[in-house]
Amino acid sequence: MATLSVGSRYPLPPLGSFLERSREEWQRAGAQLSIREYQRGAWRVVAIQVEGEGDRPRQAVVRRLALLLADTILEDWEGRLLQGILRHDYPFLSPEEKAFLQAEVEKELGQRSSWLARRTRIAARLEEYLLQDAHVTLEGFLRFRLPDYRRQLEEMVARALERYLLQKEYDTFVALLREHVASHPKQPCQVEILPGEGDRHRVLGLARGPVAVEGDDSLVSLMVAWNPERILLHAWPSSGEFREAADMLAHIFGERLALCTGCDRCLLSFSGKDSSPQA
Of 29, 44, 199, 217, which sees the most CB atoms within 10 A? Predict the structure, then answer.
C-alpha cells in the first residue's frame, strides 16, 4: 500500500471526486483508492491511499494526480503568482496598471498552445516528484521545483510592461501633437497624401507645389508643421505598411483626415503608376 498526500494553505480542488470518476481506470490498473481530506493547522491536506500489486497502480494514480494538480496550478495559482510578481517587483505601478498588465499577460497565457505547453511541463515535473516523494505542498513545489515557470511569468510581465510604457509614451507624444495643431492657426487648404513604396510619399496641395517626403516620421512632421485644414489620404487599401503613420495622423487631426479609396489617383496608384506631378 502506498500513500500520497497533497497540501496547501489555499483551498484545494475536489481531488477525491476527480479521482473517483476514474474508478474503471484504477480497476484496470489493479488499484484501489481510499481518499481522505482533512485540515492540519493552516494546511488543507488530501491523503490518497493506493492499494495494488507492484508499482503500476501507484504510477497510474500519480500520473492522473499530476495532471489534476497541473490544472489546479494553471487555473488557481497562476493568477496569484502574477499578482505577487506585480506587487513585489513593480510597487510603483497603480492598482489599475497592475490589473491591466495582469489581464494582458493572462490573455497571452490563455492561448491554447501556450497553455498546453505549460500543463505538460508542470505535470511532468509533478509526476517525477511524486514518484520519488509521497507528499507535495503546492507552495513549496512552485517555489523550489518550478523556478523556470516563475521566470517565464516574470519575463512575460516585463514584456507587457515594456509594451505598456511604449504605448503610454506614444499616447503622450500624440496628445502633445494634437494639442499643438489644435492651438495653432489652420492653413486654409486641402493637402493630399499618396503613400509610396519604401517610405517615399508624395504630398500635393502645399503652397510650394508637390513634395516628395522620405519616411513616415518626416511626413507626420510636415503635416503638423503645415497644419492644413483638411488632409486626404489616397490609396488606403494598398497602404498596409503605412497604417501606423495613418493611425497617428488620424489621432492627431481627427475628422480633418479623410480616407479616399476609389478616385482616379487611387486607381492609378494600384496599377503602379503615379498621377501626381513630379516634385
Answer: 29
C-alpha cell at 12: 484545494
How far apart CA 250 and CA 259 sit, in angstroms, is: 10
CA distance 163 to 155: 12
Rounded to whole angstroms, how far apart are CA atoms 69 and 82?
Answer: 18
Do 193 and 92 share a structural domain? no
**CA–CA distance from 21 to each of 12, 14, 275 (Å)?**
17, 11, 73
pLDDT at residue 275 in the model: 43
Written in H, E and C, the secondary structure of 197-257 is HHHEEEEECCCCCCEEEECHHHHHHHHHHHCEEEEEECCHHHCHHHHHHHHHHHHHHHHHE
Question: Chain centroid to CA 94: how far?
Answer: 19
Domain that holds residue 256: 185-270
> 163-182, pLDDT tens digit by residue?
999 999 999 999 999 999 99
Report the length, in residues, of the chain: 279
